[in-house]
Design a protein that fits this description.
Blueprint lengths: L2 E5 L4 E4 L4 E4 L2 E2 L13 E5 L3 E5 L3 E6 L1
Antiparallel strand pairs: 1-2, 1-7, 3-4, 3-5, 5-6
Length: 63
């Protein structure tokens, strides 16, 4: 499973082999619903780890 995070500033980040997604300190179960709650720290863990604020994210695509 891979994730692409598109940011409001038109940049993006890719996480390959996605293993876990955290909203704050809580591990979000699949299918990773409700990730874009305001003022939430998001962490995508896979081959790389991407940490960001939900306020900066435009779209998350997980496939």
């Amino acid at each position: 499973m891979n994730a692409t995070i598109a940011f409001k500033n038109e940049k993006y980040a890719d996480v390959h082999n996605l293993k876990e997604v955290y909203a704050g300190a809580i591990c979000v179960p699949k299918p990773y619903d409700n990730l874009l709650l305001p003022n939430t720290a998001l962490t995508f863990v896979g081959d790389t780890t991407v940490c960001c604020s939900s306020n900066d994210v435009l779209l998350v695509t997980i496939d």
